[in-house]
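Exercise 7.
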Amino acid sequence: MILHSYFRSSAAFRVRIALNIKGVEYAIHPVHLLNNGGEQHSTTFQQLNPHELVPVLEHAEHRINQSLAIIDYLEMLIPSPSLLPSDLFSNIAARAFALSICCDIHPINNLRVLQKLKKNHGFSENDTEQWIQHWVIKGFSALEKQLTEHRFCFSGSPSIADICLIPQVYNAIRFNVDIAQYTKIQSVYETCMQREEFIVASPENQPDFPGNKQ
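Solution. The predicted structure, written as C-alpha cells, is:
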C-alpha cells in the first residue's frame, strides 16, 4: 500500500494509526501542503484526488480518499484487530464520536479554511490561533462528557474514536489549548501515546517532518 500523506495532516495521521494497528506494510509518499503553493494542487496529485486533499491510499488499482473511508476499507479488508467495539452501543458511540471530530471540529480548522481567513478576512496569526482554540474547546467540552471510564475512548482497546481523537489533541496542544481541563481526553491521549502504533504515526516520526531524512 502507498499512503499519500503530509506529516502535519490530522486526517493522514488518523490513517497512519489505523494502518499501524492493522499491521499493514505501507510506503509514505509525502505531499507538502505548503511548498510551491501546495503540492496537493499539482496536476499530478489532482489525478489521484480531484479534491486536492490528503490522505489518499493506493492499494492495487484502487485509490481511496477521505480518512474515514480509508479506515472503513481497512476494517473490511483486515477485520482483526477490529477498530470498532464489539458491543453494539459502544460501536455506535465510537462512530458518532469520530464523526464529531471529523465533521464538526476538524473541517473549520483545516489548512485551506485558515488560509482563506488570513487572505480574505485579514486574520493575524493570533486571530487564527484564537479561532482554532474556540472550536476545539467547544468540541472537546462536549466530547469529554461522552467518554467513559475505559482506558481508551469506548473499550479496552483503541477504536476509530481514539484514532480520530489523538491527532485532534495533538493539534490542540500545538495551538496552546489547555488539555488538562479535559481529564478523560488527556488520559486517553496519554494512554494512546504510549503505544507503538500511535508513536510511529506521529508527525515528528514521518519522513517529511522537517529535519528527518527521507
